[in-house]
Amino acid sequence: MKKVKFQFLMLSVFILLGSIATAKAQDANAILKKMDDVMYSFKDMTGNNKIVLIDKNGKENVRDATISQKGTDKRLFRFTKPASQAGISVLSLPNDVMYLYMPAFDKVRRISSSVKNQKFAGTDFSYDDMESKLYTKKYSAKMLKTTDKVFILELKPLSKRSAYSKIICSIDKQNYYPVKMEYYDKGNRKIKVADYTFTKIGKYWNTSKIVMKDVKRNHTTIMIMSDVKYDQGLSDEDFTVRKLKE
Amino acid sequence: MKRVNLILTLVALFLFSAKTTMAQNNSNLKLSGYLQTDQRLLLQSPNDWAWNENRLSLQLNKKFAGRAKFHSEVWLRNMGIPNISSSTDLFNKGIIDPWNLEIREAYVQLFGFLTKNLDVKIGRQRIAWGTADKFNPTDNLNPYDLEDVLDFGRHRGSDALNMIYYLNSDFSLQGVFIPFFQPDNLPVGVFANILNQGIKLPPGMILKGYKDHVNLPRYNFAKSSTVGIKLRGFAAGFNFSLSYVWGRNGLPVSTYNTIVPVDTLGGVSVTSQLSFYRRHIFGADMAGSIEGVGVWAEAAAFLPAHEVVMTNDLSAFYPEFPVPVTQKTRLLAKKIYVKYVLGADYNFANGAYVNVQFLHGFMNEAGKGNLNDYFFVRVEKGFFYGKLRLSPLSGGFVVSNWKDIRHNYALVYVPQLSCQATDNTEITLSAAIFGGKGESIFARLKGYNMIMLKMKYSF
Q1: Contact B423 A114 (CB under 8 A)
Q2: Is the Cβ pair B32, A237 closer than 8 Å?
Q3: CATH code: domain of residue A6
Q4: Could you point out which of A178, B19, B284, B364 has its C-alpha 20 to 30 Å from the C-alpha of B429?
Q5: CB distance B67 to B114 below 8 Å
Q6: Which residues in chain B have their CB less than 8 angstroms from residue A161's CB?
Q7: ipTM of the complex, rounded to two decimals
Q8: What is the domain range of residue A132?
Q9: What pLDDT, on the 0 to 100 scale, is given for residue B23?
Q10: What single-letter DSSP state applies at residue B48?
């Protein structure tokens, strides 16, 4: 019995030492790239997005939207509820090109990239958070530590115009999707925390739920994805100003 | 005229039925809209109501299998205050509670018609051109809706055939045909005389009576139609477009005044003929972002099709003269004049938004030398996740003569506080303070300082 216990202990130690050695061997940026690969491995995606805003008194407001995405840098986001926002749409294209469609004016407006630092439609997400862009293109990574379940990386923005000084990102060691992100402002104060839930749809890991909490204002946004479909053959023409106005 | 409308309607119905009988309906008729009340009170004693508008906007939308779309918007409004002058008016609810019904838009849009790159829109529609914010010199297809002069840039819909051919994802070519001319509608209520320039009479004459006659163009293809073409593109990170419009000026100009003496003290009566002149408009605009700052520029070069001359007929003063005695004044030379806007905006990390624009030539101004300069600024800041928006600095500065600014300037200050009371209810409290001297539209609003309350419920 004692022999069995000793063998089990040795095995555990070996596994632990082995995993630490593996983690150390993995470059932080390589891990971040793997996270990008998991998050953006699909060719295209469509889905419905339910956004629940919860203020510090627990009062909830709900918004609905549809979302479609192609590759890593084309995204169309269209509100369907509430009525005051229905039809308002944002088209994000490569190279910081963003368009806003306001149905009340039947006009598409090019919006400046400075909008990235603003809260997206009253949520705790910024336009920057909502941007469909590879993390490896926005941040450089440094390994902080590993636990038995996650890699913990420090992400530093490559652009000086970012609203964040850093993001502490926890990445699932097994599947390489993000589990948690902690956002720090320029004064190095923690301002937001996002908890991710991933589910597998077909061969892809899907961000089924994100709970983003503004720790300073005690305000929370829950974003829930549903009816997600992948690789339906969306074309570049589905991400044009023409489509935005439809 | 009726024939043109009939043809357009038949074409629209034919195209619509042809496209939709093949397509399976994939959505129900959707009703949406809003209810808005807009109340304004003059700050100057005795604090009259300057504006009372209760608007129900009803919008109907239906999509047909992604290949066609129907859209309409109707305004049902209670507008103004009771204007009762005799007891018989009390029998008329339309006078006691003035209301009106207006079809703002009603069109059918076909996507990928005949060829996958062609979209066609037929019916009453707003065709908004230009990249600038509210002040768009190139936006000349629809008539201006000047009813509320503080609602800058509002236009009415036009009955039009509008086609856009997409050359690729970045470039498109648009063609618009509007069969009949619709003039601008003029301001109402306390703003009624804001655009009225008055009549310049020869020395010694005093205006005692005035009437006018509006000469609309003959309603046929050659005289009343408006055409426009536009090339849109995207290159080097900037959106741009080039456009051309052949149409008429929407505000009438006085071209023939018959002046008749009515007394021996210099009193005269004037009968004025008003008309709408033809013009070419060449437009260009661009929009983009430089170092995070949104930038845009828009310009329109106006070329009157002919010289616009005002004739004063003084024959009544010289009854024994064998030929008419007239005095001619050139209102507008057949020369190009350019209106333009330059603008920029920026979103700060703390939620503040700044928008600045410089405008040369307001919508009612025409002719080189008659265009004023306008500087506009808007600073906004959102609070409580955008539920409260404060605009403490919003307004403009106008210079109508740089050589004598002290007597030719105007200031307008419009601070605003808006609150998203519920998801669908927005309440806006604002004020409009005007000051200045000279001939600009804002200088003429001096004395109309007001406080404004708007509530909008969307459904």
Answers
A1: no
A2: no
A3: 2.50.20.10
A4: B364
A5: no
A6: 292
A7: 0.74
A8: 2-245
A9: 45
A10: -
